[in-house]
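=== RUN LOG ===
request id: a7f3
mode: sequence -> structure
chains: 1
length: 185
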Amino acid sequence: MWESICLTLAATAGNNIGKVLQKKGTVILPPLSFKLKVIRAYAVNKAWVIGFLMDIFGALLMLRALSQAPVSVIQPVSGCGLAILSIFSHFYLKEVMNAVDWMGITLAGIGTIGVGAGGEEQEPSSISIFQLPWLAFVVSILFVLLNGWLRICKHQRREQEMIEFEVVEEIIYGLESGILFGIFK
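=== RESULT ===
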């Protein structure tokens, strides 16, 4: 199982980084067409070719990972590619990230790998029908607390014109999405 998770991480890194390299290579290239001159320009552009090959190699690794593990494991782990892409963008494209960005990248990476690793075959557990209302109650309380935090942050933003509010809002929506994903998985 862990081999397929590692293959998925390599595959998603290849796909995402390959696309960035292709995009960077197209900055000086004409729009893609079937003219021989244009195709030759793409074929000799080093950044575009490396990006294209990384993208293809990533797709092949993904197929290999899918042949070894179920989609319910591979697909969540492939979401880690966005965290890998963020790290690549910081070091290669020199994009600036603050501490909250780094924390989000770390949590996204750990969370997606955790969801994938949790997809291993497990013994089915029985949930009593009487436990479901408690689960719904706990989730409702959690959503009320998160939305209360969101309202407090909105209020502080209006008073102090905080710029980082969007980051807090994205974190809250991400937490709520993760909770719903975990419940309905």
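=== NOTES ===
The mean pLDDT is 79.
The CA atoms of residues 4 and 95 lie 31 Å apart.
=== END ===
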